[in-house]
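look at this fold:
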Amino acid sequence: MKLLAHFIIKTRHICLFGILFLGSGQFAYADIVDPSRTEFVDLQLPDSWYLGEVAGLEFTPSGQLVVFNRGLHPLLVFDKQGQFEKELGQGLFKVPHGLFVDPQGYIWTTDQETHQVLKFDSSGKIHLILGRKDSPGLGWFDNGYQLNLLNAPSDVALDSEGNIYVADGGNYRIVKYDNKGNFLTTWGNKGDAPGLFNFPHSILIDDKDVIYVTDRQNGRIQIFDTQGAFIDEWTNIGYPYELEQYDQNTLILTDARSGEINKIGMDGKVIERFGKWGKKESEFGFPHGLAIDKDKIIYVGELLNWRIQKYR
C-alpha cells in the first residue's frame, strides 16, 4: 500500500464570533476558521491510485467509510483506520454524485451521466437498478414491463417503510418507489413556487419520515411529507448542496459556492458557519460530500481539491 492521499483532520473549537446585526432582523455570521489544532490521518490506497473529485461520503453501520469520487476508482471502502478495503462497481460509473448507506448496510449510488440509481450489498452485488443506463428521460413505460427513466439523478434516500425517494435533478422532481423499486408517485417540476424545484440536489429523511430537499438553484430547503405534500421552506441559507442530520436538533449543510459548512437548527435558522473558500486547511474547494460519524465528527469531501477534511 502506498500513501497517496491525506485526510486533513480539524479538531476545532466551534465558537461563533463576529456576529453582525442587520436591519432586516437577520444575523450575518463570520467565517469560523481555527486551524491551530490540526492532526493528519493517512488514507491508504493501492499503488498508483488516487482520489478524484469527492462527490459522496457515508459511513456503514459497522463504521467503514465509503467514498464516492470521480477518479479512476469511483466507489471505495475504507476501514476505521483509513486502510483501503475494496472497490465496488468497477466500470459502472461516469459522473458519480449522490451516495447513501441504508440501515442494513446497502450502498446506494446515483450517477448523473448514466442516469441510474444502483443498490449494492457489501460484496458489490447489485440488488436494484433504477433508470436505464445512458438513457435520460422524463416518462415511464408499462408495456408488459415497467421502466422509469431518470435524468441526472442527484441523490436517494429511504423512509422508515423502505420506500425509495430519488432527487431526479434534471427532471426537477422527486420520484417515489416502493421497497421493490416499483413506481409509486412523483412530484415537482421546474419553478420557484412551493413544491417546485430548480435542481433538487440532496434528500434527507428523518426518523419521523419528514423529507428535506435541498433546492439548490432556488437557494432553499423544502420540506415535505411522504406523499409529497408541501410543509415548509427554509431560505437565507446560501446555495444548499448536501444535507445530513447531525443530532435531533440540528442539521449540517454544505454550501459549495461559498465553501462553508453550515449548522442549521430545526427552525431553519443558521446557527454556525464554518470554513471558507480556498485550498488551505480549514478552507474548502467546492465542498460536496458530507458524512458524520458516531462521534459527531464531520467529514467533508471536496470536488476541486480532491480531498476529504474532517472536524468537530
About this structure: Confidence is low (pLDDT under 50) at residues 1-30, 36-41.
